[in-house]
């Protein structure tokens, strides 16, 4: 597949068709490898919760892990109209 190199600010880039991204399971980020005059893009797994455990431990150590909203729920069904 032939694609054109386009100007992006002071850099250059290329547009990768949506179908190719889907076929390669590329979502947000890629690992870019340069090897012997080739550019290789490899999909990276989405790490949405990366670092959360460390942040939660730090919050607990600083006593900043209290609930912001009271989690008590009144389960009494009297007065509800169904």
Strand content: 15-25%
**How far do the termini sit from each other?**
61 Å
Strand-pairing-aware structural class: alpha+beta
Shape: elongated
Cα gyration radius (Å): 24 Å
Low-confidence stretches: none
* Number of DSSP E strands: 4
Helix percent reads 10-25%
Mean pLDDT level: 87
Order of strands across the biggest sheet?
A: 1-2
Largest sheet: 2 strands, antiparallel
Helix tally equals 2
Order of helices and strands: EEHEEH
Structure description:
This protein has 82 residues and is an alpha+beta fold. It has a domain at 5-61. 20% of the residues lie in helices and 24% in strands. The protein has two helices and four strands, in the order E-E-H-E-E-H. The protein has helices spanning 18-23, 52-61, and strands at 5-8, 11-14, 30-35, 38-43. A two-stranded antiparallel ribbon has the order 1-2. Strands 3-4 form a two-stranded antiparallel sheet. Strand 1 (5-8) and strand 2 form a beta hairpin. The model has no long low-confidence stretch (mean pLDDT 87).
